[in-house]
Structures are given as structure tokens and as C-alpha cells.
Amino acid sequence: MDNAAGKVLAFVRERRLIAPGDRVLLSLSAGKDSMALLHLLAELRSELSAELRIFHLNHMTRGCESDADEEFLAGLASRLGIPLAVQRYDVMREKPSGRSFEDFAREARYRLLLETASALGCGRAATAHTADDAAETVMMRVFEGTGMHGLRGIEPARGIMVRPLLALSSEEVYAYLRGRGAAWRDDSSNSDVAYLRNYVRHNIVPAVKGRFPGYLRALAGLSRAARDNAELIEGLILRHYGALVERRSDGAVVIDLERCADDILLVKHLLSAAFRGLGSHVSAAMLDDIARRLSPGRAHRELFRGRGIRAVMAREKGRAVIRIAPEGQERLPGPWEYRVDLAALPASLPLVEAGITLEFCWVDRRRFLEERGAPDIAHIDPGNSVDDIVVRNRRPGDRAVFGGCGKKLKELFIEQKLDSAAKLSLPLLCFGPSIAAVLGGFTGEAATRVSDGFLVKNGVKKILAIRRAKK
């Protein structure tokens, strides 16, 4: 066993990356690092008592080059007797407008890798990241304005993902492949310094390496210290506050904002950890921007959208939370409806979906004049209605008349720039088929609007008042 194989074996055992009997799916391009991962784990599979599978994603971005990479791997997998699973995914065609190619391609690769691992019954998925990749990642995060979580760099294991080659430098990988006479294919896009990693690798690393030859070891130590400190802080948070973060089966991370006691530094730490847990990262400037958007008076507000992640402020079971999830996986409220008996007032109505409680009572004209204009009170003239009050969310086709103009609520909500969750959580007050009021001010989403037919006019003495209950 040569030196590189010995280092990888010791690293895998020390970090418990692969256990005897594991089925490991190797995520391979056709480049040098991937070929080193393949040959090293093929060489070590008896010592590890592991079963190997290969995954290759053809990004379809380099035409014949991409197809040749696939053919190269297919031939190699056949010679080594290792089953190969190939996915073809046109990254450029599927990439949404405004998304970074690097970020989107990475997300697609990991998503398809994990789906394939699940389908093949693989309990581990290995990538070919080296110590050089880890150092480049830390540099990239520093230049983008990272905090402690970004300094953690590439971790040896997270979930089912493992990185056995973090034990080796790029130079050691080259030496291993040359010693075996192993072939690999060069990706022409790796020389394009328009991509951030390539820019760091080709323009910054040589200068750093020339002045600080031990930079790999130094940055690895920095990452290790960041991981240790993050784990220490998270342990102290758990001990002092209890569990503030819930990781859900749909992939979302939910932060209990109310229990953070207005500690914005704590909220920023939890946000940074949540983004990292979802495979993304935030810069210090992004965290500051999210913090500025936090508004306890609003039930729903988008805090961040980008890098395939969306963060929203919402209310769940009456509590303010921050929900962070991959875009497209946001859970939206379904139809909901409550009834209040006009003959049984005063009454209190908790609205779980909106995260508020409404109080209903009758008031006289004197009190109406004292209270009107308050943001958390609405006054309605129900006329001679004998219907129950219905409080519900929006339905397709809903309309109301404001200022003599009939308007679809869909158009009103677009004008008010409400997001999808807010549109479905905002309470509507109805009498029979008529919408009496849109209670936007009660949840901090624009203003409350009372329909023309239910405005309190001169001479009306018995007035229905709806208040948002104080906490």
C-alpha cells in the first residue's frame, strides 16, 4: 500500500467515514481527483469491507467533451467491475434566470447524487474533494464576507456525504495517479477564470502558496477551529435556550423566533447554521439584510430568496418563526374558514393560520369615534344581516368594492406585493357571499380595507368592532 492509500485509509477510519458493509456511491467526473477517488477506494475496498457504485452526471454543457467523459467512465467502470449509474441533465437549459451556473450545477449534482444513492440503497456517497479544494472554499467564503460557518469549509462528513480525499493535497493526488499510470480527462472549463473557484485556483492560490507554503495546513486548522467553536456555541445555545431549531422531513429548517428573545446575534447564528445545513451559505452582508427585514408586527414576510433557498418570516401556532427551505418546497396554507355567531358577542377567535386572535364585540358611536383609525381595529356596519360572521382566507374569484371601484382581491394583493404565503394567510371578514373587510393591518400586510357596503355611515349606532387581541 503506497503512502496516499495509507493516508486515506487512516483518515477514513479516524473520521469513521465508511463502516464495514457500507455500500458507497462514488460521485465522479472524469477528472484527476475523481480518478484518484475511484482507484484509491477500489484499492482499499477489501480493507474497508465496502461495496462500491459509481455515479456520473453528464452536465451536457461541453457537447462531445461531455459525452466522451461519460464513455471514458463507462469503460473504466466495466474494467474495474463496478456498476455505473449515469444521469444526463442539461444544466444550462434548466438553470433559472439570474442563478449562478456554478451554484445551480452543484445543487443539481448533489440532488441527483442523493436521489441515486437512495435508489441504489447506498448508505454513503463520496465526493473527490481534496485539501486544496477545502482551502479554496475557505478563501472564497472569506472574500465573499463569511462568518464562522463559512470558515468550516468542506467537512469530512455531513449526512451521508463523505470526503475521503480531504486527507490528500492536489500534489499527492497527482503523484498517486502518475505512480499507477492512471489516466484522466481534463475539463476545458476548469481554466475559465470567470468562475470564482477557477479564479481563486489560478490567480490567488499561486501567490499565496509562494509566500505561505504551509497555507493548506493553516487553513485546515482554521476550519477545524471554526467547527469546534460552532459546536461549542450550539451546545451552549441548546443548554441555555433549549431547541430553537426544527429540521423537518420536507427539508425545511424552522427557527423559533419568539424564543430568541430579540437577540439578533443569536438569530444571525441560527440563520447561518440553517443555510449551511441546507448546503448553502450567507455572507455577513446578507445576514444584516435579513435582520433588517425582520418585523415582529408582520405575520408573513419574505426575508431572502437566492442560491436555491428561500427564507420567510411566518407564524405557526401563534408563534413567530423563520422558515428556510429549498425554493419550490414552501408549504402554503390550504383553504381555511371559521364562523362567529353574531348573537353570541363578545367572542374571541384564534386564527392559527394567520397567527393572531380576533376579538369581536358591539360598540356605540362614541367609542367608534374614539377608536377609528387604529391599525389593529376594524369597524363594520353589518346592516340588517342575520348571517354569521365568516373569517376565511382567499378563494379564486374573490372580489370587493373599495372607493366605488370593484376589484379582484388577486389584483389588490399583487398591488400590495404580498407573497404567496401572505395571500393565503391574510384574514377576510365575510357576511354570506359578500366580503366586508380585508384585515391586512392585523397581520402587518399592507392596510385593512373595509368594503363600501360595510363602511360605518352617519347615524349608525350599533357597530361591529373587530380587534387584534394583545399578546
Structural features, described:
- The chain has 471 residues and is an alpha+beta fold.
- The chain has 3 domains: 3-221, HUPs (Rossmann fold); 243-326, 2-Layer Sandwich (Uridine Diphospho-n-acetylenolpyruvylglucosamine Reductase, domain 3), CATH 3.30.465; 337-468, no CATH class.
- The protein has 15 helices and 22 strands.
- It has helices at residues 3-15, 32-48, 64-80, 91-94, 101-120, 131-144, 148-151, 170-180, 196-211, 215-241, 264-277, 284-293, 365-371, 409-415, 420-425, and strands at residues 23-27, 51-58, 84-88, 124-126, 157-158, 161-162, 245-247, 253-256, 301-306, 309-316, 319-326, 337-340, 347-351, 356-363, 377-380, 389-392, 399-402, 405-408, 428-431, 434-439, 448-450, 463-468.
- The chain has a 6-stranded mixed beta sheet with strand order 3-2-1-4-6-5, sandwiched between helices. It has a 5-stranded antiparallel beta sheet with strand order 7-8-11-10-9, covered by helices on one side. Strands 12-16-19-20-21 form a 5-stranded antiparallel beta sheet, with no helix packed on it.
- Strand 2, helix 3 and strand 3 (84-88) form a beta-alpha-beta unit.
- It is elongated and about 95 Å long.
